Amino acid sequence: MNESKAPPKNIVLIGFMGCGKSTVGRELHQKLGYPLVDMDQVIEQRAGKPITAIFAQNGEGAFREMETKLLEELNAPNPLRRIISTGGGVVGSAGNRALLRRLGYVVWLDAPMAVILDRTARNRERPLLDTEDPVARIHALMEVRRPLYQEVSHLKVDTAGLDSGELATGILESARYFFAQQV
Ligand code: S3P
């Protein structure tokens, strides 16, 4: 079979800020040896500045354009299997959601609200939460995004009580099963 026509076999991690996408992504990368694409990091490298500065100087719209462009590039035919960890707002547009589904196996990492609040309170590198009432903002964003994560994912993983190694092992098993079913 022509490799480039085969369905892509990337593992794509989606989910809200603070749900462990980057950590689990690194763990999967170590276990599998597939290259890791951390979309936020790539965008920061390309822009030559942190995400907070992109938002402050260029606006959220510019960040979202960079995010979509990167998703399009990742969708270019490529026989490489990759681990792709995304930013929490990547599911915001229907176009992005279609691109995510085409990339491979989409895993939604979810966490209880208390965990998200705790983790996001510990760093200030998230411009969307740099508001007077970050807790209200998190609740509002979650309400909008939950159905979108649900819609786009093949698998939902509740991360509570599991460490990143355990999460990666479980994801790996189900990804293997998923890809084995694909022709
Ligand atoms: C965002 C989440 C961030 C980053 C940007 C916007 C969001 O990524 O992409 O600050 O809209 O939820 P993490 O989910 O890795 O924090």
Strand content: 5-15%
Number of helical regions: 8
The helicity comes to 40-55%
Ligand kinds? shikimate-3-phosphate
Radius of gyration from CA coordinates: 16 Å
Uncertain parts: none
Sheet having the most strands: 5 strands, parallel
N-to-C terminal Cα separation, in Å?
10 Å
SSE run: EHEHHHEHEHHEH
Overall number of strands = 5
Look at the structure and give the mean pLDDT.
94
Helix and strand content put the structural class at alpha/beta
Task: Please tell me what the overall shape is.
Answer: globular
Largest sheet strand order = 2-3-1-4-5
Please, could you describe this protein's structure?
This protein has 183 residues and is of the alpha/beta class. It is built from eight helices and five strands; from the N terminus they run βαβαααβαβααβα. The chain has helices at 21-32, 39-47, 51-58, 60-74, 94-103, 113-121, 134-152, 164-181, and strands at 10-14, 36-38, 83-85, 104-110, 155-158. The protein has a five-stranded parallel sheet, sandwiched between helices. The chain starts with 9 loop residues before the first strand and ends with a helix. The structure holds shikimate-3-phosphate.
